[in-house]
Amino acid sequence: MEPIQKDKVQQQLDSYVDQEIYLHLETTNGSYAVLRGERTISVGAFIRNVPLRFERAVIAGHGPYRVGLKMQHGWVYAEGLTDWEPERQEGLLLAGHDEEGRLAVAFQVSRTPFGKEEE
Q: Which residue, 2, 3, 37, 97, shows the most beta carbons closer than 10 Å to its own?
């Protein structure tokens, strides 16, 4: 992965406007862990192969970035994005890594469904 190039990511996002796409969005378990006394609270989110259509896409910030997709009835967005894969043929893959290189958030769009995991 390479550091996000904002203008190039925006161009790729724009290429998906008004098309049905599949979304994969997740935070890793513990990416928002908060210490409260002796306890750690882990929060995570995971959605995969959600079909949607959006009318506008925006990448904002100066790094880390946030990406939002404006749909007819609302928004979906990811925050804390730092890296991307510019030569990816299967769709757009963005990720956010912490200072130690650990994955905190993944945001991926594709015109075809993502592979199915083992049940």
A: 97
**Distance in angstroms (rounded) separating the CA atoms of residues 42 and 33:** 5
Residues 6+ apart with CB under 8 A from 18: 53, 54, 55
CA-CA distance, 93 to 81, in Å (whole number)? Answer: 10
Distances (CA, A) of 12 to 63, 67, 84: 18, 12, 11
| CATH code given to domain 2-105 | 2.70.180.10
For residue 14, the one-letter residue type is D
User: What is the C-alpha end-to-end distance of the chain, expressed in Å?
Assistant: 29
In tens digits, the chain (119 residues) has pLDDT values of: 999 999 999 999 999 999 999 999 998 865 444 454 556 667 788 899 999 999 999 999 998 999 999 999 999 999 999 999 998 888 999 999 988 888 899 999 999 998 865 44
Where does 1-119 have alpha helices with state H? Answer: 6-14
